[in-house]
Specification:
Structural class: mainly alpha
Strand content: under 5%
Helix content: 55-70%
Order of helices and strands: HHH
Radius of gyration: 20 Å
Distance between the termini: 65 Å
Shape: elongated
Number of domains: 1
């Protein structure tokens, strides 16, 4: 195996390991109270896309109302 091939193989292995660690962390996070609180928060904001409600949660987890530009 040549140097570039070995480097490519090592890079692929590191990439796979990083992805495995990421997915393991996500799986563990889904069992936490923080995740459950976030999902309850998202469920309350039915007029928003879940990702947008989650972004609101990350900025202000105690929000009970969010004004859009047209509601100001």
């Amino acid at each position: 195996m040549t140097g570039p091939q070995k480097q490519s193989q090592n890079k692929q292995r590191d990439h796979n390991q990083a992805l495995n660690e990421f997915f393991q962390s996500c799986s563990e996070f889904r069992k936490t109270d923080t995740f459950i609180d976030a999902m309850r928060f998202v469920a309350r904001f039915t007029n928003y896309a879940p990702i947008n409600a989650f972004l609101i949660y990350t900025q202000r987890p105690t929000a009970t109302f969010v004004a859009t530009p047209s509601r100001r």
